[in-house]
């Protein structure tokens, strides 16, 4: 059986995220094994997994606000800190309400 469609949540991920998921599955979900493979600490792998979960959840809940989704993605990709992202999103939504 061949999978012909890639789920939307997966299509939005970067190649390194997909590689991480593959390694995670092949390691039977052992974060300790993944930490050894990447030669990093367990908390580092846990943080990466948490961020990946956030990315997937964000892809699943994409709404009618592409700009807000873009700002969230920047924050998840460490290109913008979360507090700044919140401020930008709040200002954007205020502007939309006053519009």
From TrEMBL:
Domain YvlB/LiaX N-terminal stretches: 66-97
Residues of the DUF2089 domain: 13-58
Name of the protein described by the UniProt record: DUF2089 domain-containing protein
Pfam family, one: DUF2089
């Amino acid at each position: 059986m061949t999978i012909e469609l890639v789920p939307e949540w997966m299509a939005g991920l970067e190649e390194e995220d997909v590689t991480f998921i593959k390694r995670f599955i092949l390691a039977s979900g052992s974060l300790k094994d993944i930490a050894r493979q990447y030669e990093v600490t367990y908390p580092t792998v846990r943080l990466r997994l948490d961020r990946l979960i956030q990315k997937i959840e964000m892809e699943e809940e994409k709404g009618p606000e592409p700009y807000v989704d873009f700002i969230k993605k920047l924050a998840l990709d460490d290109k913008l800190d979360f507090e700044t992202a919140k401020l930008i999103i709040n200002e954007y939504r205020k502007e939309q309400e006053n519009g």
